[in-house]
Specification:
By secondary structure, the protein is of the alpha/beta class. The chain folds into two domains: about 300 residues, Glycosidases (TIM Barrel); about 130 residues, Sandwich (Chondroitinase Ac, Chain A, domain 3), CATH 2.60.220.20. About 35% of the residues lie in helices and about 25% in strands. The strands form five sheets. A seven-stranded parallel sheet has the order 11-10-9-6-5-4-12. Strands 13-16-17-22-19-20 form a six-stranded antiparallel sheet, covered by helices on one side. Helix 13 links the parallel strand 10 and strand 11. Helix 7 packs parallel to helix 12, helix 9 packs across helix 13 and helix 12 runs parallel beside helix 13. The longest helix has 29 residues. It is globular, with a radius of gyration of 27 Å. It starts with a helix and ends with a strand.
Length: about 550
């Protein structure tokens, strides 16, 4: 009898534990997408676990037509992508004021589900590329109720002023209505992961708005809310803002020109604050309906730009991110659209002061593949997305980015784990700028250089790689056009050598070994006497443009 009672107690405990586990699983599945600090990285959490966005943004007008998109969805599904970034135009969901039509949203969500893809929706409300092209006709025509930005000449630009209260009310109301609809139709399946609020905001054609409302605000005291933020965070502000503020000896009250000085830099700060406040209200109103991550994106300063207004003045440029943080706390990510060649430098600018990186617009091709691996590795981006993805795939099904995404897809669990542990880095090498780079990860110095062809003196123009310190003395590396060698970075035997190296792949998070590489496959330099004088063996890893693979290397040390 006692035995039966013990058995019954054990059975009840097992059932209770099982039920608890099932409840926790269901709870995780019901979590809406959100950002979460995971060890050394902030990551996007989807269905209870970290998610790496391998994205592609559609061209601006593509998502407006379901018929147009029909031929692209099957290609997108097989391209290695897991997420599509698609615009939703204010003019399409509210063609008549107060009457909403969410057909475009419904179509996008339904088609994404059909082809097993996730979505990031881009809210094209008052602004797209700084201009007002996607607002409804009833907004465009009523320039009294919805005032336009005025240039220095006093002439109106086709840009809604961020100081227009009626504009903010109408825009935020429509945006919130869309988010309420997304919650109602998608919160259980979580197809939509994030939202971009507007697009590349800022004034083009003038450093600031010179309309009557704007002039009055510009000549009024700087909002106390902003001054409180700057004073509180004075020691941690970015140097670009500190340099402007110190010209007035860090004055803490007065008009915009009294606090920051006269000139176009102050004009830009004024516009930054007003765009940030506008978008923050939009985000807060929308999050009250469905609180998934929201971000803004920046049209970056171009080399030929002379002053704000040549690029969108007021947008989330790297040099004004402090004001965006102050004015838009409901915006989760401040993101660069990387269409310039310096991906490394831009990523560095946009990860200052713990800003989490996401790249919503960039390029495809070989350069895009390098960008993707780089931003996911060293700056720990939550994802990458080239622009015009349907056109890219239609023109070239073998685009290098497709190949890169398919590798990243298999490596995603390992990458996300390494991001959290801080055991990941990456390199992006350019022949004319940085043909080699030495990094430290774990107990080793790792020299990465553009691959050298033993039969030819030529060197590739670009190389890239992602490196994970998977356990002591062990590294997982994927690269293209690079070679990698190791040397110790901790006390002990002075020479690092390869114990073994396997090429292989990942399936469902599990390593599947292929060839065991040795001999010529690991030799970088046959001048062994010279290498010995440098405490090196002449061996390493090679990743050429052809036959690329993931390699897992185990090291040992000797004297």
């Amino acid at each position: 009898m006692r035995t039966n009672r013990i058995f019954l107690v054990i059975l009840i405990c097992l059932i209770s534990f099982s039920c608890k586990q099932q409840i926790q699983t269901v709870q995780k599945q019901k979590e809406i997408p959100h950002l979460k600090k995971m060890g050394n990285a902030t990551q996007l959490i989807v269905d209870g676990k970290p998610f790496l966005v391998l994205g592609g943004e559609l061209q601006n007008s593509s998502s407006s037509s379901r018929e147009y998109m029909k031929k692209f969805w099957p290609q997108l599904e097989t391209s290695g992508l897991n997420t599509i970034l698609a615009a939703v135009e204010w003019s399409l969901i509210e063609p008549v004021e107060g009457k909403f039509d969410f057909t475009v949203v419904d179509n996008l969500i339904e088609d994404a589900r059909t082809y097993h893809l996730r979505l990031v929706l881009l809210w094209f409300g008052s602004w797209k590329n700084g201009q007002t092209h996607y607002a409804p006709e009833w907004v465009k025509k009523d320039y009294t109720r919805f005032p336009r930005v005025k240039a220095e000449s006093g002439k109106s630009l086709e840009i809604l002023s961020p100081l227009g209260k009626e504009t903010l009310n109408a825009d935020s109301k429509a945006f919130a209505a869309m988010m309420k609809h997304v919650r109602e139709i998608d919160s259980s399946e979580r197809t939509v992961l994030m939202i971009q609020v507007e697009n590349e905001v800022g004034v083009l054609g003038s450093p600031r708005d010179h309309g009557d409302i704007a002039n009055a605000a510009f000549n009024a005291p700087v909002p106390q809310e902003l001054m409180n933020y700057l004073v509180k965070n004075k020691e941690n502000l970015l140097p670009e803002l500190t340099d402007i503020w110190k010209t007035t000896n860090f004055k803490t009250s007065g008009t915009w020109e009294e606090v920051f000085g006269k000139g176009v830099k102050t004009d830009e700060l004024f516009m930054v604050w007003n765009y940030a406040r506008y978008l923050d209200v939009c985000a807060a109103t929308a999050k009250a309906e469905y609180s998934i991550p929201m971000f803004v994106n920046a049209w970056l300063v171009q080399p030929e730009d002379k002053r704000p207004g040549d690029y969108p003045s007021g947008g989330p440029q790297a040099h004004v991110l402090d004001l965006w943080r102050a004015g838009a706390p409901n915006i989760d990510l401040l993101c660069p659209d990387i269409h310039l060649p310096d991906c490394v430098g831009i990523s560095t600018q946009y990860t200052r002061n713990n800003n989490t990186l996401f790249v919503p617009e960039s390029g495809a091709g070989e350069q895009g593949a390098g960008n993707a691996f780089y931003v996911i590795g060293k700056p720990k981006s939550i994802g990458y997305s080239p622009f015009g993805i349907e056109r890219t795939i239609a023109n070239n099904v073998n685009d290098p980015l497709t190949r890169a995404y398919k590798v990243l897809e298999t490596m995603a669990p390992v990458i996300l784990d390494a991001q959290a542990k801080g055991t990941i880095t990456s390199v992006l090498l350019k022949q004319e700028k940085n043909p080699s780079e030495e990094i430290i990860l774990g107990d080793y110095k790792i020299l990465v250089g553009l691959v050298r062809n033993r039969r030819s003196p030529s060197v590739p123009e670009q190389g890239y790689g992602i490196i994970i310190n998977s356990s002591p003395d062990e590294y997982i590396i994927y690269g293209n056009n690079i070679q990698v060698s190791f040397s110790p970075n901790t006390p002990g035997p002075a020479i690092a050598a390869i114990s073994r190296v396997d090429e292989g792949r990942y399936e469902n998070g599990m390593w599947i070994a292929g060839r065991r590489l040795n001999g010529d496959d690991i030799m970088l330099d046959y001048d062994l006497a010279k290498m010995a004088l440098q405490n090196k063996t002449g061996t390493g890893l090679r990743f050429s443009g052809e036959g690329r693979s993931i390699q897992l290397v185990k090291l040992y040390r000797y004297e």
